[in-house]
Amino acid sequence: MTIVRKNIELPADAVGLHVVASVSGGKDSTALILALRESGIGARYVFADTGWEAPETYGYIDYLRTKLGIVIDVVAVNDDPHRGYSAMVERIRHRAGFPGRMQRWCTRELKIEPLRRYHDRLIEMTGIETVSTMGLRAAESESRAKMVEWEDEPEGKRSWGGYIWRPLLQWTIEDVLTIHNRNGVKVNPLYQQGHSRVGCYPCIFASKEEIALIAEHSPWRINEIRDLETEMTVLRAQRNVERPGRYVHEASFFQTQRQGFHGIDAVVKWARTDYGGHQFHLFAPAPRGGCMRWGICDLPDTTIQEHRDSAEDE
Fold first, then answer.
1. Considering only 147-151, 195-199, 239-243, which range has the smallest mean pLDDT?
2. Which end of the chain has the least Cβ crowding within 10 Å, N or C?
3. Tens-digit pLDDT profile for residues 26-74
4. What is the pLDDT of residues 278-306, one digit of tens each?
5. What φ, ψ does residue 224 adopt, rounded to 5°?
6. What φ, ψ does residue 59 adopt, rounded to 5°?
């Protein structure tokens, strides 16, 4: 099957404005960089560092800089991003709790607000409006399918407050992978591990498979979450002594939306079980997400060997 090369065209309302493309290290935002370059559209690139990304993602951002010869600016909560500082951990300690389904402050405080300040500074320096350009695709979710390619979103507590352009909205996964291959650009190595998404590592809404993959490949992150759960529970108790009733629940756990789970260890244990959450796998399951799902890479040799070793042990 021949896949037609897709060029993107700058909307008439965006002509003369600063195109600022948000970079996450994921396949879609990388496709956005490549599409802008192929279409001859000048842009600035910016990465919002939550301090909670995977090491592979930080490495991939550096890879894009070198491979494409581009500048990718970095913004963070403290406006002085540097390795070793985690905005996510700082915010967790400030609130003595993790983001949750009802208090999803992470996106707003760690990404939107630092990016908004970046745009505002650029406007102040040049006197020219900016266009927030994102590599979102309608096929990714029901909510994204309802989005429009161009809009001027009014300012508000839960809105961007400016021009937004989503040029890849109607692109397919084939379009995304094709533009990677055409430019000789690799995808984030997390996809080779089986991850379906790239972003906070892990997100509070991470899937069962994502949690299991992180526990397997990055147990240090699980240890960090466990230590934070203990630290935040102690901190809440101290603050409740200072101001009784400040926290209704003194214990603070990651992924509190998982009903019945108390602590990251319980979540990991559940993530390693089969469908229904009660039976453990006889063999380690092969990853279903990432490049395995898209058919762009083979099953990792280590996983194949683990399956063989498990079979021999039986």
1. 195-199
2. N
3. 999 999 999 999 999 999 999 999 999 999 999 999 999 999 999 999 9
4. 554 434 454 556 655 655 554 344 333 33
5. -65, -40
6. -65, -35
Query: Looking at the structure, do residues 16 and 130 belong to the same domain, yes or no?
Result: yes
Say how far apart CA 169 and CA 148 lie, in whole Å: 8
Residue 46, phi then psi, degrees to nearest 5: -140, 140
| Contacting residues for 111 by C-beta, under 8 A, at least 6 apart | 48, 50
Number of domains forming the structure of the chain: 2
Question: Can you spell out the DSSP letters for 82-103?
Answer: -TT--HHHHHHHHHTS---SS-
DSSP assignments along 39-53, one per residue: TT---EEEEE--S-S
- Domain membership of residue 242 as a residue range: 208-302
Asked whether residue 187 falls in the same domain as residue 221, the answer is no
Name residue 14's amino acid.
Answer: A
The answer for residues whose C-beta is within 8 angstroms of residue 195's C-beta and 6 or more apart is 210, 213, 287, 289, 290
Domain annotation covers residue 65: yes
